[in-house]
């Protein structure tokens, strides 16, 4: 048996019983418990509902989903893998492999929706559209440039959080809108599973960003923060045009833009930064918020609205030490 | 006063910092010694639930509440979370409200918005007045 050449670096066997960062195990557990596959969602129940959409609404929906497929493909094959060499703990690297794989599941899910609801011709046309759409290609390019090898690891994390927590939402809006009108509700259930995963991804990558950021001096922090806000402006500009092209005809553009502002603010919060868009342009249509988190009551006892000063319903808890 | 928990990601901590209200932070380290609240307080708690809602209330908060004296001073809870987690959004607030028999006063996402800050601050002022002046 030959010895390995000296240039090969052998990683150390990962020991999950010795953690450098508790967050790695917390997020690993969250992601693995939340694991799912599209086969578990009864998409075929949406066939009657799909038939009620107009041709334009169908085309819009398929296009939106091919756009989302592209982002998931990028994150699966380039985005999450590009973060692995920058990992500061072996456990972080393992979490990133899970993130990468789930992005492949997400990308695969859209094809399950297509094969359930659409014809081959419609599907092929939409994929061709996604390859030719300048705004979709522009946002992919802006992100991929940041992911390129040799780039600043923290800038890569900024771009990754923006993809996970901001860029998906011009697309996620539509299934939430259909769901709020009691249409394609099973498809919406599947999209909610994707949204839940992307929220953990954005949170975790944002958390790792914050750990790196806090080690920088003031000038470096300022430069990086400026970079983050300028990238957000660039992506927001593209998203505005993408949104107008997709949603003008159905009359939803302004509603989608509010949703973009709201999600841009949340993406910045994942990085530990303050919101960019003021509250008056970020108040999302309540029907869309309700579609996003169904069955979760809104609590605002303080201002006298919402369903509060009512003791909550019984909820499942698990902790043995939680009985007083 | 306020008592809050915030993990290393710091969203709840940033929310509380902006409130500018006397606040006690429950330590992240499970073994750390706890400071005792001496006045009635509102608890602010983020949610860490999985898809089924398990594990919503952080262990550190459970430990804190597992003491009748501390629990006796709890007047209400504010839950936080992320709507992207669907039905489990801000679930920790609802669980604590139910377990401790106190109202859930408010819910907000991540580090909150300027609107959330203003509403909670105003709400705390009103609540303090109701609890007879300086009690909160």
What are its keywords?
heterodimer; A: 324 residues; mainly alpha; Ribonucleotide Reductase, subunit A; 65% helix; B: five-stranded parallel β-sheet
Short description:
Chain A is mainly α and 324 residues long. Helix content of chain A is 65%, strand content 1%.
Q: Please, could you describe this protein's structure?
A:
The complex is a heterodimer of chains A (324) and B (136). Chain A has 324 residues and is mostly helical. Chain A has a single domain, classed as Ribonucleotide Reductase, subunit A. Chain A is 65% helix and 1% strand. Chain A contains twelve helices and two strands, in the order ααααααααααααββ. In chain A, helix 3 crosses helix 5. The radius of gyration of chain A is 21 Å and the shape is globular. The N and C termini of chain A lie far apart (63 Å). Chain B is of the alpha/beta class and 136 residues long. Chain B is globular. Chain B is built from five helices and five strands, in the order βαββααβαβα. Helices cover 35% and strands 21% of the residues of chain B. Chain B has a five-stranded parallel beta sheet, sandwiched between helices.
Taking all residues together, what is the mean pLDDT of chain B? 91
CATH class of chain A: Mainly Alpha
Distance between the termini of chain A: 63 Å
Named at the architecture level, the CATH assignment of chain B is 3-Layer(aba) Sandwich
Output the helix-strand order of chain B: EHEEHHEHEH
Characterize the quaternary organization of these chains: heterodimer
* Major sheet of chain A: 2 strands, antiparallel
CATH topology grouping of chain A: Ribonucleotide Reductase, subunit A
User: What name goes with the CATH superfamily of chain B?
Assistant: Flavodoxin domain
Give a count of the beta strands of chain B, DSSP E runs of length 2 or more.
Answer: 5
Could you give the topology of this structure?
The complex is a heterodimer of chains A (324) and B (136).
Chain A (H helix, E strand, L loop, with lengths): L21 H12 L13 H5 L3 H29 L6 H28 L2 H13 L1 H14 L5 H15 L1 H12 L4 H29 L4 H30 L5 H18 L15 H7 L6 E2 L4 E2 L18
Antiparallel strand pairs in A: 1-2
Chain B lengths: L1 E4 L5 H9 L3 E4 L14 E6 L12 H7 L2 H5 L1 E8 L9 H10 L3 E6 L4 H17 L6
Parallel strand pairs in B: 1-2, 1-3, 3-4, 4-5
């Amino acid at each position: 048996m030959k010895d390995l050449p000296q240039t090969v670096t052998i990683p150390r066997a990962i020991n999950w019983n010795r953690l450098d960062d508790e967050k790695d195990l917390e997020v690993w557990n969250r992601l693995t418990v939340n694991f799912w596959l599209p086969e578990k969602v009864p998409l075929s129940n949406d066939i009657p509902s799909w038939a009620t959409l107009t041709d334009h609404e169908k085309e819009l929906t398929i296009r939106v989903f091919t756009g989302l497929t592209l982002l998931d493909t990028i994150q699966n094959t380039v985005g999450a893998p590009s973060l692995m060499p920058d990992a500061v703990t072996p456990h972080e690297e393992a979490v990133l492999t899970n993130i990468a794989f789930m992005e492949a599941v997400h990308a695969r899910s859209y094809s399950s929706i297509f094969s359930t609801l659409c014809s081959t011709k419609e599907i092929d046309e939409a994929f061709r559209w996604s390859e030719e759409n300048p705004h979709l290609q522009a946002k992919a390019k802006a992100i991929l440039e940041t992911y390129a090898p040799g780039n600043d690891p923290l800038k890569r994390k900024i771009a990754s959080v923006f993809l996970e927590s901001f860029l998906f939402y011009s697309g996620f809006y539509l299934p939430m809108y259909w769901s709020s009108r009691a249409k394609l509700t099973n498809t919406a259930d599947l999209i909610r599973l994707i949204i839940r995963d992307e929220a953990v991804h954005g949170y975790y990558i944002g958390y790792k960003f914050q750990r790196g950021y806090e080690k920088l001096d003031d000038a470096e922090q300022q430069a990086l923060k400026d970079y983050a806000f300028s990238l957000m402006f660039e992506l927001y500009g593209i998203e505005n045009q993408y949104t107008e092209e997709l949603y003008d005809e159905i009359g939803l553009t302004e509603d989608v833009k509010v949703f973009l502002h709201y999600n841009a603010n949340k993406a910045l919060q994942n990085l530990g930064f303050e919101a960019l868009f003021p509250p008056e342009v970020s108040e999302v249509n309540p029907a869309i918020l309700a579609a996003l988190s169904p069955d979760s009551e809104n609590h605002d006892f303080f201002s006298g609205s919402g369903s509060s000063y009512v003791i909550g319903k019984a909820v499942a808890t698990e902790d043995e030490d939680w009985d007083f | 006063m306020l008592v809050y928990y915030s993990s290393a990601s710091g969203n709840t901590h940033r929310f509380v910092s902006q409130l500018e209200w006397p606040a006690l932070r429950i330590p992240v380290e499970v073994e750390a010694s706890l400071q005792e609240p001496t006045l009635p307080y509102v608890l602010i708690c983020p949610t860490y639930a999985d898809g089924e809602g398990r594990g919503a209330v952080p262990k550190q908060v459970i430990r804190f509440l597992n003491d009748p004296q501390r629990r006796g001073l709890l007047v209400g809870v504010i839950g936080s979370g992320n709507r992207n987690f669907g039905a489990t959004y801000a679930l920790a607030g609802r669980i604590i409200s139910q377990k401790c028999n106190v109202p859930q006063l408010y819910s907000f996402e991540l580090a909150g918005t300027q609107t959330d800050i203003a509403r909670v601050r105003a709400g705390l002022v009103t609540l303090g007045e109701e609890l007879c002046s300086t009690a909160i």
